[in-house]
């Protein structure tokens, strides 16, 4: 109980600013639903906030320096699309083996799309799915 009181006190003293800036990838943490589409997905749908936030953090980690649109070629081998639903609005993040595109901006991506999706499913989403089934006694 002391730990919970401590955490609540810290949250009161240092409240987190809301993610309202659509230019910032943190805005995606406001999503109610996330859908994967593309070469390495089966239109999987996720609604747990912890899953959505994990995906946003992984995308932020994979997004390198911003690059100009004229540096972009459409000669990519891999492509994944992360579709976030925020207050009824559909927001897409496109991840290819060359770049990540969010809100009209391009970022160099040293991480391949299938590596990012594979890491998410192996390390977290699969575990959460299994735990969810256990809770439902399936």
Q: Which keywords apply here?
A:
138 residues, alpha+beta, Dna Ligase, domain 1, 7 strands, 36% helix, 25% strand
Overall description:
By secondary structure, this protein is an alpha+beta fold. Helices cover 36% and strands 25% of the residues. The protein has one domain: Dna Ligase, domain 1 (2-Layer Sandwich). It has helices at residues 2-13, 49-62, 113-135, and strands at 33-38, 45-46, 66-67, 79-86, 89-96, 99-102, 105-108. Strands 2-1-4-5-6-7-3 form a seven-stranded antiparallel sheet, with helices on one face. Helix 2 packs antiparallel against helix 3 (113-135). The longest helix is centred in the last third of the chain and has 23 residues, at 113-135.
Write the topology of this structure.
Blueprint: H1 2-13, E1 33-38, E2 45-46, H2 49-62, E3 66-67, E4 79-86, E5 89-96, E6 99-102, E7 105-108, H3 113-135
Antiparallel strand pairs: 1-2, 1-4, 3-7, 4-5, 5-6, 6-7
Helix pairs in contact: 2-3
């Amino acid at each position: 109980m002391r730990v919970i009181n401590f955490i609540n006190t810290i949250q009161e003293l240092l409240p987190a600013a809301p993610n309202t800036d659509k230019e910032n990838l943190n805005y995606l943490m406001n999503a109610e639903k996330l859908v994967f589409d593309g070469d390495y997905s089966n239109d999987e749908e996720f609604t747990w906030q912890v899953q959505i936030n994990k995906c946003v953090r992984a995308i932020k980690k994979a997004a390198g320096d911003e690059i100009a649109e004229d540096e972009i070629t459409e000669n990519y081998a891999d492509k994944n699309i992360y579709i976030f639903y925020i207050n009824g609005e559909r927001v897409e993040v496109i991840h290819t083996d060359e770049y990540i595109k969010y809100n009209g901006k391009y970022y160099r991506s040293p991480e391949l799309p299938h590596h990012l999706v594979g890491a998410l499913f192996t390390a977290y989403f699969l575990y959460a799915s299994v735990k969810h089934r256990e809770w439902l006694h399936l």
